[in-house]
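Please, structure for the following, as tokens.
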Amino acid sequence: MGRKPVIVRHISTEELIKLYKIENNSRIKERLLAIIHLYEGKNVYEIANILKRCERTIKEWSSRWNKKGYDGLTPQNRGGRTPKISSNPCSPDSRVDY
């Protein structure tokens, strides 16, 4: 099997499980579950199989956890196209020309 990654234990397993239970954001909750599995000694390939994610994703989450702890698991802004309609739909600048 694959080698187990080094995981920084920023908090205890009990605290990590508490965070998992109270987390409302499903994306963060999934990432916390991956970290819990790493704490338990599972390797990246086992976790990827359990969570139905690719190994690269689990490695990325592990790396971000090691660098920033819980804050590293929050979803990153991925940018995207600028909106054509402003946040204020009544402003004159919000018109869309077809």
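The two ends are 57 Å apart (CA to CA). The chain has a mean pLDDT of 87.
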